Amino acid sequence: MNSDKKIIIAIDGYSSSGKSTMARHLAKTIGYRYIDSGAMYRAVTLAAMRAGLVSRDMAPSSEAIAAILPGLSIDFEVVADGQNTMLNGENVEKDIRSLEVSSCVSPVAAIPEVRHALVDMQRLMGESKGIVMDGRDIGTVVFPAAEMKVFCDASAEKRASRRYKELTEKGAQVTYNEVLENVRSRDYIDENRDESPLRCAQDAVRLDNSEMTIDEQNEWLMNLYNRIVNG
Ligand code: CDP
C-alpha cells in the first residue's frame, strides 16, 4: 500500500488502556484527523445528566435519552495542545472527563438509539478516510473494513492507576479504589451489552501495554502503521 493513500485506523480496547494517547500521537505524526468516539458518548451522557435523565443513583431511560438526541450537536475543536469536545457549541472537554460522567457513561452508551446516532456521525467523519478513531466498536461496527485495527489492553490495576494519576493531576478529588471500581464496572457493561459489545475484531492486532511506556507504545503503533502502508 502506498503511504500517500489515506486509510482508516481503528483503535479499540478497554477503559483507560491508553488508546487515546497513542491514537492522538499517531494522528498528529501522520497528519490524520483524530476522533475520540468515547468523548462523543461522554458528551451525550453529560447532556442527559444536565437534563436530569441519568445520575449515579438513577439508571437512564432509553426513551427519554433518545428524545434529546436530535437536539444535540457534537463536534471537536482542534487547539494547540489537543482538541476540545464541543456540545452544542460549548466546550465541555473538562466536564466530560469527570468521574461522575465516567460513572454514568456506560449505561448511556448501551442504549441502541444512542449508538445508532453516534455511529452515523462517526461514519460521516470517516468518509474521506485519513482518520484515526478510538473507542470500543470502531473496528467491529463503525469501520469493519478499516485497513488498520488495533485492540488495546492492560491489567485493570495498571489502567486504574494511570487514570487515577491523570485525574488527580488535574485536581479531581477521587480515590484509587473509586477509579478501579469504575474501570471494572465500565469494562463489564461494555463487554456485556446487547448492542455492539466490546470485542476484539478478528483482524485486529492485539497490544497489551501493561509494561510499556508512552514512548514505547507510540513507537509500536508507528511501526505497525509503517508496515501496513509500506508493506
Ligand atoms: O475512559 P476511557 O478513555 O477508556 O473511555 P472513553 O473512550 O472515553 O469511553 C467512555 C465510555 O463510552 C466507555 O466506557 C464506553 O461505555 C463508551 N464507548 C462506547 O460504548 N463505544 C465507543 N466507541 C466509545 C466509547
Give the SSE layout.
Blueprint: E1 8-13, H1 19-30, E2 33-36, H2 37-50, H3 62-68, E3 74-79, E4 82-87, E5 90-91, H4 93-96, H5 99-109, H6 112-125, E6 131-135, H7 138-142, E7 148-153, H8 156-169, H9 176-192, E8 205-208, H10 214-230
Parallel strand pairs: 1-6, 1-7, 2-6, 7-8
Antiparallel strand pairs: 3-4, 4-5
Helix pairs in contact: 1-10, 2-5, 2-6, 5-9, 8-9
Cytidine-5'-diphosphate (CDP) is lined by residues 15-16, 20, 37-38, 41-42, 105-106, 109, 135-138, 186, 190.
- How do the strands line up in the largest sheet? 2-6-1-7-8
The secondary-structure class comes to alpha/beta
Bound molecules: cytidine-5'-diphosphate
With helices defined by DSSP (H or I, 4 residues minimum), what is the helix count? 10
Kindly describe this structure.
The protein has 231 residues and is an alpha/beta fold. The protein contains ten helices and eight strands. The strands form two sheets. A five-stranded parallel beta sheet has the order 2-6-1-7-8. It binds cytidine-5'-diphosphate. Cytidine-5'-diphosphate is lined by residues 15-16, 20, 37-38, 41-42, 105-106, 109, 135-138, 186, 190.
